[in-house]
Amino acid sequence: MIGTRPPYATEEALREFVQNALKEDLGPGDFSTLSTIPEGMGQSAKLLIKEDCILAGIELAEIIFKTFDPELSLEILMKDGDAAKAGDIGFIVKGSARGILQTERLVLNCMQRMSGIATLTHDWNSRLLGTKAKLLDTRKTTPNFRVCEKWAVAIGGGTNHRFGLYDMVMLKDNHIDYNGSITNAVKMCREYLAKNNLDLKIEVETRNLDEVREALETGVDRIMLDNMPIPMMREAVEIVNGRTETEASGGITRDVLHAVAETGVDYISAGALTHSARNIDISLKAVK
């Protein structure tokens, strides 16, 4: 299963990420490569997948190679979202030996991480079959790598939640406690949005059924059911009765996914998709 590239994964955003990552890795120069590999030497290398996974990062790998050296060429053998088996070859890159060596680690770091996230997301998403619930990621991501991690969630079949703090309003427990009530927080938020000509959806985090009822009265776009036991969550969905969207969040594990989905919630969000995914073993090997 593969999702399309998310709208925030623009060419500009990806190019900026790649340039910063290369700068971090290369610094004043890759002296191991510059000292041992003659300028102008042409070589090729294959991307070897060493364990079963949902492959992610092929498109990004091509962007990395081309950003560093437009003359590097890829023979792409597998695509993002493919179910790869140990021993599969994802692509063959050809061109400057120096270029291949200097981009190798960035390509692998990205692909190992993205494939791990896509694999975990695919596994979790498969547990929601037969329900209406959609699996969401969260902002619990690696700083400066969010665009790639959320892209990997989409590749794995998940749905991206808001990208940052600016593309959707989420009034969480601290916002509410600082304002004294959900009603006050939503009122202030709507006034701010109107004053600044912002058209954003509002989601409110709730911790109990009284807060669910209060949030429902404010007419917000989505109500988050945070860390609720499944029986309480089911009752909350019955109270809402389709009048707004519902999202289960907090303490979501693989084992409870289906039971949570069966409560009738519209969305299930899980930070584990990005903060707990295990990297997949992938390597780049010289073609002899």
Helix content: 40-55%
Radius of gyration, CA atoms, in whole angstroms: 22 Å
- Strand fraction equals 15-25%
- The SSE order reads HHEEHEEEHEHEHHEHEHEHEHE
Q: Brief description of this entry?
A:
With 288 residues, this protein is an alpha/beta fold. 43% of the residues lie in helices and 18% in strands. The protein contains 11 helices and 12 strands.
Any chance you could write out the topology, listing elements then pairs?
Blueprint: H1 11-26, H2 31-36, E1 42-49, E2 53-54, H3 58-68, E3 73-76, E4 83-84, E5 89-96, H4 97-126, E6 134-136, H5 146-155, E7 169-171, H6 173-179, H7 182-195, E8 202-206, H8 209-218, E9 222-226, H9 230-240, E10 245-249, H10 257-261, E11 267-269, H11 272-275, E12 282-286
Parallel strand pairs: 6-11, 7-8, 8-9, 9-10, 10-11
Antiparallel strand pairs: 1-5, 1-12, 2-4, 3-5
Question: What do you see in this structure?
Answer:
This protein has helices at residues 11-26, 31-36, 58-68, 97-126, 146-155, 173-179, 182-195, 209-218, 230-240, 257-261, 272-275; strands spanning 42-49, 53-54, 73-76, 83-84, 89-96, 134-136, 169-171, 202-206, 222-226, 245-249, 267-269, 282-286. The protein is α/β, with parallel strands linked by helices and 288 residues long. It has two domains: 11-125 and 278-286, Aldehyde Oxidoreductase, domain 3 (Alpha-Beta Complex); 128-276, TIM Barrel (Alpha-Beta Barrel).
